[in-house]
Amino acid sequence: MIKYTTISTDEELINLRKNWFNKNIHVIAMDFEGEYNLHAYGCKLCLIQVFDRFDFYIIDPFELSKIELKKTLEDKNLVKIFYGAGSDINLVYKQYGIKMNSVWDLKTFVDTLEYEKKGFYDIINDVLGINIENKKKFQMHNWIKRPIDKDAIQYALTDVQYLFLLKEKLLNMVIREGKTETLIKRLIKSRIDYDKESIPTIFKSKEFKILTPEERELAKKIYNIRECYAKQINCPPNLLLDKVNLINVTKNIDSIERIKPNKKINEELWSRFKSEILQLKK
């Protein structure tokens, strides 16, 4: 059982930063848990896990101000070790406009070493010989719910527990294999482009790409209507219309009449949603 301290007020977060400064702690291991259109509409930062080599912390962003989160995550003097930081960096930028600084992403080391299996738990197993149990149990967990399940917190803390050790092992492997220059090049190229337009996953799919130009435009209109309704009732967009059905409706708009709505969707709302889609017919 990992012992940890909960940080749930601005004052506690400020004091934590002061404590790190006073103890000359300038490198921490960090990871996020978020909601990604799985239990509610949109993407949201739900939890921040931290290990500073000595102590573990659970930071609850729901209770904190944007300004104090920003001071912590944008602090250039505080190095944050992550594994696969890309989605985490994008999440806090989209939600808060925070541009994270001094992120040490160990996934870059793994790419340099050309591991075939690059999942976090695969790497922990391969490099450290540690098998983390129940890793799938909380992969679909609803991190929005409060209070957070105690077992879920323990699971979340394992994501930062081994990052310092993993960093040392991977760095030694890079040096031993003579790939230091390759790593440096990857680190230089890995800078996040915050101005890059975000493209919804469905528009990157093979099914979307094989549509005709006219069908693609129709798919985007259906997608926008779906987003509007999903946001209105705070539900995952796929609950209204998943990718397969969205593509099928794009090819034959009348096929929406044959779709049985999810039981969680109000009949009156589904009727309005369906009517709005049908109005797109030429």
Order of helices and strands: EHEEEHEHEHHHHHHHHHH
What is the share of helical residues? 40-55%
| Strand order within the widest beta sheet | 1-4-3-2-5-6
Number of DSSP E strands: 6
- Mean pLDDT equals 94
Specify the overall morphology: globular
Contiguous helical run count: 13
What fraction strand?
A: 5-15%
Low-confidence stretches: none
Q: Which oligomerization state do the chains in this entry correspond to?
A: single chain
Task: Report how far apart the termini are.
Answer: 61 Å
Provide the gyration radius in Å: 22 Å
Describe the largest sheet: 6 strands, mixed
Class derived from helix and strand content: alpha/beta
List the helices and strands and how they pair.
Layout: E1 4-7, H1 10-22, E2 27-36, E3 43-51, E4 56-59, H2 66-73, E5 79-82, H3 86-96, E6 103-105, H4 107-112, H5 120-128, H6 150-161, H7 163-176, H8 180-189, H9 206-209, H10 213-233, H11 237-240, H12 243-251, H13 267-278
Helix pairs in contact: 10-12, 10-13
